[in-house]
Amino acid sequence: MEAIVGSACSTSALLFGSKELVSKGIHYNGLVRPFETKQTGYIRAKSVWKSRQVRAMASQIPAAPKREKDPKKRIVITGMGVVSVFGNDVDSFYNRLLEGESGVSLIDRFDASSFPVRFAGQIRNFSSEGYIDGKNDRRLDDCLRYCLVAGKKALEDANLGTEVLESMDRSRIGVIVGTGMGGQTTFSNGLESLILKGYKKVTPFFVPYTITNMGSALIAIDTGLMGPNYSISTACATANYCFYAAANHIRRGDADIMVVGGAEAPVIPIGVAGFIACRALSQRNGEPQKASRPWDTDRDGFVIGEGSGVLIMESLESAMKRGANIIAEYLGGAVTCDAHHMTDPRKDGLGVSSCITKSLEDAGVSPEEVNYINAHATSTLAGDLAEVNAIKNVFKNTSEIKMNGTKSIIGHGLGAAGGLEAIATIKAITTGWLHPTINQDNLESEVTIDTVPNVKKQHEVHVGISNSFGFGGHNSVVVFAPFKP
């Protein structure tokens, strides 16, 4: 740009300051306009016009976004913890995703034989051994159990076990693990007790184990973490909202480390019945493993799932000081609202596209740098195409982008979905392999982006985004990349 300005200035000096030019031209609105018969003046004036045109064009080109350089504000991922239909180990979880074998099956936690939907991404054989003592484990709602195990496993993965934490300033470590629905089993059982047996039979744990903030609170109580601590509840966008909020705490200097994610345990009679009433769920009871089929023309709704996904987000300065293993970098995020409808997305995708754009601005990333999208992709008729249209509005050239749907394999974890999918996104970055979107038999014609259909693909992720959207029109997008010192 300096060269352009310099060239323009020197040419202007010739135009305005040269007696020769003035003598060979005429004044026109304060400028020198050359006689076309005077070739020298014409050429010089033409040179000025070209210079101005170049400057005008340059001013229309947006400046390249600037990524954060301050190690106090750069945010890295130093730990991950998961509770999923594929178990409680991050590597095993992602390896099963890469295999593309569905984790959806018939419900056996309760008798669903009379329900029009009889399957889910249900967790079986869950063990909290070593993370929750037996007495509390028997009392706790599954949502809290999943939250505690995933949170503590993430801390372990970040080398922030009990002994290490005791030597640290724990007022600088916070927790934000959200949930869309909270302790549903506790609430359902409490209501049943009230109706059948009276108020005296309602457990004293009814309120503490139902409210959405208790997961974050219990992690802090067990570990002594005294930094910012609360939950966010924005339906299926919850976990990404938590990541965004936690990042802002670190950037503002409120904390050095945050334990962040989402948890949900809705596979109970009232949870499934509620979504049946919304007409949101697939009813493919004969083929449950083929029920979640994002972007496929034969999709008929989402599959309810559960679990927890938690990240350790940390300032680069803090991670470097304690010699932490840096897994990936969080570059930025954004949250917006459709302001449109309780359950339906905007057809024009404006809320989603603006959220993606804002997330890239926050991350200091240009659209051309993004080459992987972990899509929200729930397998609903309207939602899948609304998201694709929004993506196309932001990314004009999608030829280098690959996009997959984790929910096709494990179902929709609601408030936990963003946490589970953030882990899938980060594992895609670190392994160079993308898990498939399964059940891709008849792709919608509008979907012109590579959805990694049915078989995993090798792909070097430069910048990846993870989308999560929730009932109420809540939109959230987070941006991850390989860590480069």
Automatic annotation (TrEMBL):
UniProt main location, coarse: plastid
Top-level EC class as recorded in UniProt: transferase
The protein's Enzyme Commission number: 2.3.1.41
A GO CC annotation given for this chain: mitochondrion
Any one GO molecular function term: 3-oxoacyl-[acyl-carrier-protein] synthase activity
Location within or outside the cell: Plastid, Chloroplast
Reactions mediated catalytically: a fatty acyl-[ACP] + malonyl-[ACP] + H(+) = a 3-oxoacyl-[ACP] + holo-[ACP] + CO2
Keywords: Acyltransferase, Chloroplast, Fatty acid biosynthesis, Fatty acid metabolism, Lipid biosynthesis, Lipid metabolism, Plastid, Transferase, Transit peptide
Annotated InterPro entries: 3-oxoacyl-ACP_synth-2 (IPR017568), Beta-ketoacyl_synthase (IPR000794), Ketoacyl_synth_AS (IPR018201), Ketoacyl_synth_C (IPR014031), Ketoacyl_synth_N (IPR014030), PKS_Beta-ketoAc_synthase_dom (IPR020841), Thiolase-like (IPR016039)
Gene Ontology biological process terms, A to Z: fatty acid biosynthetic process
Ketosynthase family 3 (KS3) domain: residues covered: 72-482
Family: Belongs to the thiolase-like superfamily. Beta-ketoacyl-ACP synthases family.
Assembly with partners or alone: Homodimer.
Protein role: Catalyzes the condensation reaction of fatty acid synthesis by the addition to an acyl acceptor of two carbons from malonyl-ACP.
Name used for this protein in its record: 3-oxoacyl-[acyl-carrier-protein] synthase I, chloroplastic
